[in-house]
Amino acid sequence: MSTGNLLRNKSILTHREKEVFELLVQDKTTKEIAAQLFVSEKTVRNHISNVMKKLNVKGRSQAVIELVRLGELRI
């Protein structure tokens, strides 16, 4: 199997990052996401920031668009 196939099968998101963005696209606030996942709002913001850095995008909405394009997220 080529390296390209291995990379395509591996998610670029951690399980928690995926959870955060799945809730984000359901129009949940940072506060609501934090409460649902039993973490602080700062932790939620850190997850969002980490994903934006991975994708090299500047905002949450750009991150969502890119994640949908990459097949990492469904809306």
Question: Care to describe what's here?
Answer:
The termini are far apart. The protein is globular and about 30 Å long. The protein has helices at residues 3-9, 15-24, 30-37, 41-55, 60-69. Helix 2 crosses helix 4, helix 3 (30-37) packs across helix 4 and helix 4 crosses helix 5. By secondary structure, the chain is mainly α. The chain is built from 5 helices and no strands. The protein has one domain: Winged helix-like DNA-binding domain superfamily/Winged helix DNA-binding domain (Arc Repressor Mutant, subunit A, Orthogonal Bundle).
Write the layout of secondary structure elements.
Layout: H1 3-9, H2 15-24, H3 30-37, H4 41-55, H5 60-69
Q: Please tally the helical runs, counting DSSP H or I stretches of 4 or more residues.
A: 5
Shape: globular
Q: Terminal Cα separation, in Å?
A: 31 Å
Q: What is the CATH topology assignment?
A: Arc Repressor Mutant, subunit A
Query: Which range best describes the helical content: under 10%, 10-25%, 25-40%, 40-55%, 55-70% or over 70%?
Result: 55-70%
